[in-house]
What we know:
By secondary structure, chain A is α/β, with parallel strands linked by helices. Chain A has helices spanning 8-16, 22-40, 48-63, 106-109, 154-161, 178-184, 218-228, 272-287, 303-318, 336-347, 350-363, 369-389, 415-419, 426-430, 460-472; strands spanning 43-46, 75-79, 115-120, 140-141, 144-148, 167-171, 187-190, 211-215, 258-262, 291-295, 395-399, 435-442, 448-455.
Amino acid sequence: MTLYDKTAHELHELLTTKKISAAELTGDVLARVDEVEDKIGAYLTITRDKATAQAKAVDDKINRGEAIAPLEGIPCAIKDNICTKGIKTTCASKILENFIPPYDATAYKKLSASILIGKTNLDEFAMGSSTENSAFHTTHNPHDLERVAGGSSGGSAAAVAGGEAIFSLGSDTGGSIRQPASFCGVIGFKPTYGRVSRYGLVAFASSLDQIGSFTHDVTDCALVLNAICGHDEMDSTSSAASVPDFTKALVADVKGLKIGLPKEYFVKGIDPEIESAVRLVAKKFESLGAEIIELSLPHTEYAIATYYLIAPAEAATNLERYDGVSYGARVDGADVVEMMTNTRTEKFGAEVKRRIMIGNYALSAGYYDAYYLKALKVRTLIQKDFTDAFKKVDLILTPTTPNVSFKVGEMISDPLKMYLQDICTVPVNLAGLPGISIPCGFTKDKLPIGFQLIGKALDEATILKASFAYEISG
Amino acid sequence: MKISEQDIKTVATLSRLRIREEESADVLFQLNKILTYVENLQALDTTNIEPTTYALPMQNVFREDKVKPSLDRELALSNAPLKDDGYFKVPRVLEA
């Protein structure tokens, strides 16, 4: 029986009824990794020995007759910007090439009963939409190896799509979970800002960053959210709101649910095949009893510009810490300033340097008001668009991306074109809202298409409910 | 041109980065392209609009001022590129 392509809840059932052991399951996933990893390149580090030891511990527990948690003994992958104690966490950057965190990120700690297969590839410091900005290698799309897996959490998406992990964690600052999920044909969820602790997530843009999941189905998505969400005193921006049991939302009933279709997301520039697939999803929801309401989010066209000022400004500040002193690489110089300059010049990649430069320019005297402060004000307008829309609807339905997966090398020389990739996902981060990407068919070239559902702040449950209804409707 | 070669040199210095001669034309071209694009925000009237730094309502978070265990020194220094006798070691900062 092949196990690597099953869902966590199916595997939990097989484990608890002793039809399979955690050792067999882990062995099956590791064998799959051996088979496909040199073609896909989802991982930066594979933790084979740890995985094998963890599996044995879970089997011992089952054999002692003890109960196991839903994700206990389930093989998973963690994006390599989430700290794992004693296991290299590189952010796909040469500056952290040998960094071994002395502590665990809270989100990973909460999954410590799951079996860690390895740390996944990303664009350096999560800056990019294709993993081509990784200092180490590019992750290829399991559906078409000539194409990108998306980014920045491309490794985490490809690991699940390629059968190299049952589920995975990523991080989403402007679409870095939802876009690769859409490109790889899996489910990607970015919870509300603050729902999951950012403690131990290497900071990129602190007001936008959020940890989330990649899974094969909506039930697994709810299970991962149950495990990772919740307030954490180690992250003062984590939400104090109580966390519901998300599996309770797995009820296939959308009768009377109001779903908004924003006209700004169905304009020129969106691949017609994607547009028609998402309109079919709207029809499907209608046939299931939901009400589809056309609406407008008028400031959508300003979202990319807003994001590409705010995110680089925060990144420029966050990345000041890489100075060759307390951790990370150091390149020597005659004095402290030269040492820092040599270190950063040699060890940061081109895109990271570009964003640091844009950020520091936007924050510098004389430009602060025109760039950074202006962007913060437009952020208010973008957020208000959503607040107004959610007075009329419960959820908003859009494409996840304007195009499907592109070829490796196709866009990398045009950073601005790459930034425009994020047009459907970035507004959600600016407003701090939860969003999911769900597969909804393939193009005629057999490339996965995804749709996005956006919910009200802290209302992940309604997203899951509608997603579950869509999933089981076939 | 939004940004000049001199501006780039200044920002690079602020960022503790050095732009190599052979890459300076491309850096100038890409940054200008991006900064020209973000110019579209200027079309919006934002008079009387408050800036948003965090999307969700947030207040100061307080906790009791209690001593708790923290990372031990050995572990905190474990990733230091250069250390000496329990300290991070850096190039000389003050003149001898």
